[in-house]
Amino acid sequence: MSALAVLCLLTAVTLALGYANKARCTGPEFNEWGRSGPDYQMRSYRDVCYSDVQNLWVGRDIDRHVFPYVHGGIDPDGSLWGGVVEYPVLTGVLIWAGAFFVDTDAGFLLSSALLMAPFGLAVAWWLGRLSRWRALLWALGPPLVLYAYHNWDLPVVASAVAAVFVMHRWQASLARRSTAAAVLLGLGFALKLYPAIFVLPLMLHVFTEGGRDWRGALRVAGSAAATGVLVNVPFALAGFQGWAASFEFQSRRQVDLSTNSIWYWGFRHWTGDEGFQDAMGIVSPGLMLVSFALACWIGWLRYEKTGTYPWVQVSAAMLCGFLLLHKVHSPQYTLWLLPFFVLVQVRWGWIVAYLVADFAMCVGIFRWLYLGNEGEPSGIHDGFTAQALMIGVWGRAALLIGLFVAFLAARTTIEERTEVSGGTPLRPTERRSYSWNSGR
């Protein structure tokens, strides 16, 4: 317990540094809308302290304390109004709660940080229980300083990690553990969508562990879906137009500089073409689905070889496919991947290389935006800023391809357990441990 307490203390220090990093952009003056000044936008790019939390204080009626979704909608030009935010409903409520007692973007950043910090500490605790000292990657990882309060991602990361924790540390039957994990993934869907992709590998794990247990697999799917529906239904009933607007905003989002994905950097000269944007609405999700299917299939081959379906590794690989191929790749998505560096035993070279590439991308993109806004030369031959950005974007993309393979070939850092037919956990001496190369 003392080691876990130290782990959480280190995480708290890192989270405090993450807040201090973003707070550099706040104040010292505030205009009539509570926006920091002077030169808020220029400072946020130049000093690499930009955050969506602070930036969205103005423009989504957050500063007016409007409850989200109920009275809003989306205009034909894609602009949201009436308190609608472009995130799923639980994140929208979290945003509203963070703004409730404040009247400046600085206060909003602080209150949002206080709301989200417990989720970051919970992730540290769960990862420590699952993987012991490797959880230091979360507690001391640079992404926690860069992105803990860049957006509202700590709660959704917590939901995904909690699902793994419940599956591997809760002393209950497979049916109860998998149902609880599915509910947590459903809550994650209502926060940021991406945990929903982990439902399929969890279904396959339950199906194989239960001896071709179709009912168990369907129970997982039903529990996750029911949770997502139950959370969303009240908002849909209270204001269908506003609720639907958040989904429509994301479906209509175009590939542009704000998406920061390989589709923009690889094809940015085409992004003004309507045909290209329409094609991206098909190509990007289509390729993501292919990557998901490939990961699940390789996981099945591994199950046939070892007797255990590697749902955590498959989930990690699916996330790599999502990050690589989705038309949006926001900087803070690294927080989604960081727990898998803890939970899956990939080589340290992969981890260090990815964190370096991510840091180069983060600093590079905001410094590049600063130079562009100031009219300074910002081409690839004009200095290291654009070069660092390209190293980050394409280095990260190449590493995601490699990590897709590495995750699927790796062991977890979690002590695995199997079930007897009645659903009772086997005693520790009866637990089996398989590896990709075990031949068993």
Q: Which strand order spans the largest sheet, edge to edge or round the barrel?
A: 1-2
Give the DSSP E fraction (strand runs of 2 or more residues): under 5%
Number of distinct helices: 18
Report, as a whole number of angstroms, the end-to-end distance. 35 Å
Low-pLDDT segments, ≥5 res: 417-440
Main structural class:
mainly alpha
Please supply descriptive tags for the structure shown above.
single chain, 440 residues, mainly alpha, 18 helices, disordered C terminus
Secondary structure elements and pairings:
Blueprint: H1 2-23, E1 29-30, E2 36-37, H2 40-46, H3 52-55, E3 73-74, E4 80-81, H4 89-99, H5 105-131, H6 136-139, H7 142-147, H8 154-169, H9 174-192, H10 199-209, H11 214-238, H12 240-252, H13 262-267, H14 274-306, H15 311-325, H16 334-343, H17 348-373, H18 384-409
Antiparallel strand pairs: 1-2, 3-4
Helix pairs in contact: 1-5, 2-17, 4-5, 4-9, 5-8, 8-9, 9-10, 9-11, 10-11, 10-14, 10-15, 11-12, 14-15, 15-16, 15-18, 17-18
Keywords: Cell membrane, Membrane, Signal, Transferase, Transmembrane, Transmembrane helix
Membrane topology: Multi-pass membrane protein
Subcellular location: Cell membrane
